[in-house]
């Protein structure tokens, strides 16, 4: 259970493969048959079932050969499952350790993978490398688009994982920075839909709740010229309120207190917008006092200090 809890905190899905969670072998075998059918290996099984229906019996040698083939096939799938889980464990360790570039180098080897768990992590790693200060503007753009491609493929492979929806929405939002305000507003509906789906699949993921709060805050705080573009594009343009944003930020904090400096900052900023000076002071002070571990934390600290001085 401890490992499962760590996985939720990292933003992964509760289940990777049946093998990791000690599922009964019979159930595992059934899953493998389904998987092999998708890869095209199911034709052999279908062909042999036709032989059985026609009353054709295997010889003892043929039967034993068939059983050996099945055992070898299952063994290779188990090995593949173990390898994937080992890579995921390595990836989660590197992510938790802040080894951004090492994580990207590890996962980039699997960029042609069909595994959604590897792909959404690769999307996240690509985006994280893009955010590094030493990454050039040209490389950043390339990585942002690559991240969206990985997240899109992950979504095609697995729609029941909250992290897949969350990182698809994040990456789609990032691409909007390169495609203009019209495209960004057009994508806003899709982004909101996937954040909401992530929350539906895992209501206890503080990050998804925070990001939904950011979406609401952004459209509550939209400049007039952007509102005009949105009204021209849609009969019902994307919109929200500070009250709605506050609910998501507060829910995120309730789920995992003090999990993210930026959530503390936005609680303070939202209360400022709602003219609640007392609560704004409380949350901005918390953002200021929180220890800085990353460049983003330092930026949050700086903004919190500036806002407190303005109150």
Automatic annotation (TrEMBL):
It is found in: Cytoplasm, Cytoskeleton. GO terms for molecular function: microtubule binding. It comes from the Eukaryota. The keyword Ligase does not apply. Its main location: cytoplasm. The keyword Repeat applies. InterPro entries: RMD1-3_a_helical_rpt, TPR-like_helical_dom_sf. Keywords: Cytoplasm, Cytoskeleton, Repeat, TPR repeat. GO terms for cellular component: mitochondrion; mitotic spindle pole; spindle microtubule. Belongs to the RMDN family. Interacts with microtubules. PANTHER family: REGULATOR OF MICROTUBULE DYNAMICS PROTEIN, REGULATOR OF MICROTUBULE DYNAMICS PROTEIN 1. This is Regulator of microtubule dynamics protein 1.
């Amino acid at each position: 259970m401890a490992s499962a809890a760590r996985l939720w905190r990292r933003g992964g899905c509760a289940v990777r493969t049946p093998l990791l969670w000690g599922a009964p072998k019979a159930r595992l075998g059934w899953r493998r048959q389904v998987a092999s059918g998708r890869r095209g290996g199911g034709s052999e099984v279908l062909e042999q079932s036709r032989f059985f229906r026609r009353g054709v019996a295997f010889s003892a040698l043929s039967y034993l050969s068939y059983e050996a083939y099945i055992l070898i096939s299952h063994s290779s799938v188990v090995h593949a499952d173990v390898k994937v889980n080992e890579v995921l464990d390595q990836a989660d360790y590197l992510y938790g350790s802040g080894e951004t570039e090492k994580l990207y180098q590890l996962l980039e080897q699997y960029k042609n993978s069909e595994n959604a768990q590897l792909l959404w992590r690769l999307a996240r790693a690509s985006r994280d490398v893009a955010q590094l200060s030493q990454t050039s503007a040209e490389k950043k753009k390339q990585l942002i688009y690559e991240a969206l491609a990985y997240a899109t493929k992950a979504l095609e492979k697995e729609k029941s994982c909250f992290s897949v929806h969350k990182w698809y929405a994040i990456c789609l939002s990032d691409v909007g920075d390169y495609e203009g305000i019209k495209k960004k507003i057009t994508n806003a509906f899709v982004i909101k839909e996937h954040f909401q789906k992530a929350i539906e699949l895992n209501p206890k993921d503080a990050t998804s709740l925070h990001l939904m709060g950011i979406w609401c805050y952004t459209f509550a705080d939209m400049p007039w010229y952007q509102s005009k573009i949105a009204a021209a594009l849609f009969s019902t343009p994307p919109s929200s309120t500070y009250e709605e944003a506050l609910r998501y930020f507060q829910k995120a904090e309730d789920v995992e207190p003090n999990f993210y400096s930026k959530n503390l900052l936005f609680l303070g900023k939202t209360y400022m917008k709602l003219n609640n000076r007392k609560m704004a002071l409380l949350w901005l002070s918390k953002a200021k006092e929180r220890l800085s571990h990353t460049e983003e934390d330092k930026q949050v600290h700086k903004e919190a200090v500036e806002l407190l001085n303005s109150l």
